[in-house]
Amino acid sequence: MRSLPEADPGLPDLRSPIRFLWWNARRQAAPLLTGIGFATLWWLVQALMPAVLGKGIEAVTAKDTSALLRWSAILLGLGLVQAFTGIMRHRMAVYCWLAAAYRTVQLTTRHAARLGATLPKRLSTGEVVSVGNSDIAHIGGSMDILLRGAGAVVAIVTVTVILISTSLPLGLLVLFGVPLMAAAVGPLLRPLHRRQHRHRELTGELSTRAADIVAGLRVLRGIGGEQVFSERYREESQRVRRAGVGVATVESVLEGAQVVLPGLLIALVTGVGASFAVAGEIPTGQLVAFYLYAVFLIGPMRTLTEAADRITKGHVAAGRVIRILSIDPEMTGGTGESDGGVLRDSFSGVTVQPGVLTALAASTPGDAVAVADRLGRYTDGDVTFGPAELRTLPLAEVRSRILVVDNGARLFNGRLRDELDVRGGATDDQISEALDAACATDIVEALPDGLDSVVSEAGREFSGGQQQRLRLARALLADPEVLVLVEPTSAVDAHSEARIAERLAKARAGRTTLICTTSPLVLDRADHVIHVQGGRVRAEGTHRELLDGSPEYAATVTRGED
């Protein structure tokens, strides 16, 4: 088993879903045990009511008014206790449900944040989304059913003891009948588990497909691919539907067994009890009590069947959570220190001087991305930051001091002000300066509430160029020690690009900045330009020097045009 999040170092070695569910139960042991106590008392009170009713009927038969009043008062007291314990049982069940579900959310969210760029490489979007959509509900449900399930076991044992003490044949009938019913339900659990697992996988894949379609809808419309992807989504959704029907088939049989099997036991117990009453072996009051006991047993036995179903679903869901928690981050940090300085990638030879606006023009876009990933410690590499190796620094420190911004970055749902000022410490003037540097002031002015306008998920109300400018403003507001920008102006028009190039140089004056781009407008504003070809540095200088002295560089930035 791989390590779990450092945010919760007290976690045990959760190598299986059962261990995860057990760990979750232990973390809320006090409320869980309290709820089990209320549930047990709730069931026990109901189990005692048939006996009290039987005694009351015997008092009516004997015309004993005082006994009738006494048993009626006892029945009223039991009813009040049942009402109180029922309320408290439900309250504790909801608490345990929410605690287990949201503890799982917190755990997976912390681990997802720790994984960072590793998570989307290892798991699909739909797989992660499904944890929050359905898995946490099943894990919470497995904690909820423990309360009633434990109480149901105690209630069945209590009724069995009462019946044995009253009538040995009836007690033995219940004693052996309940295990036989549980054994009859057992064969349904394995196919249910298998079909639920398959349905869960298909649901995750469908969620991924939906997320991809929504994210690329603008592109699909541009190339006329909507119908193709609509057909693919329809096919996958039908597979999910068929898998869901398969799960429902087994669940329907299980639900039917919850009614039929207890019903058979009730009929058997009632029939045997009636024969005893006809033979004069038991009084009428006891016959009524036996019938009520048989009817009462439906509840506990159905609860046990429901517990088997919910725990099976919780087991499947816990397996999905364990799959996320078992992923280790690709990059880890050390405990070293660095005062900053020159940032250098030994593999490519790219050297970023402190306080200088450096541009990197790569003949192949992938080479620029690879350099940026190594400099930001998103992939492993021999990179030094001042006198220290980057891999020896704590990863959180690297993230706070070196910011890599590419076009895969997203805007999140919320107020635009909060999306831009992620650290929450910028003034209105600082936000305005960042927006001006990114040529994004017009975007904010066009919004009905300005910076207080609510941005939809991924900023879909903005065009590609507008999103790119807002992301650039957000990066400038973060004001990192080292800022690495990957193609920050690829989606804007030439006039905006020229203004951004000029203002970006002023905004980052005196601070370390690397811009990966092949735009001549941006390259001409850089203090130093590095040309990378085949993953290695081939030439360095100013933009104009390289245009005159390096034909390969000129071909890269002019795209083969004179």
UniProtKB/TrEMBL annotation:
It holds the Pfam family ABC_tran. It comes from the Bacteria. It is a multi-pass membrane protein. Residues 33-313 form the ABC transmembrane type-1 domain. This is ABC transporter ATP-binding protein. The chain crosses the membrane at residues 29-48, 68-88, 145-164, 170-189, 259-279, 285-304. GO terms for molecular function: ABC-type oligopeptide transporter activity; ATP binding; ATP hydrolysis activity. Keywords: ATP-binding, Membrane, Nucleotide-binding, Transmembrane, Transmembrane helix.
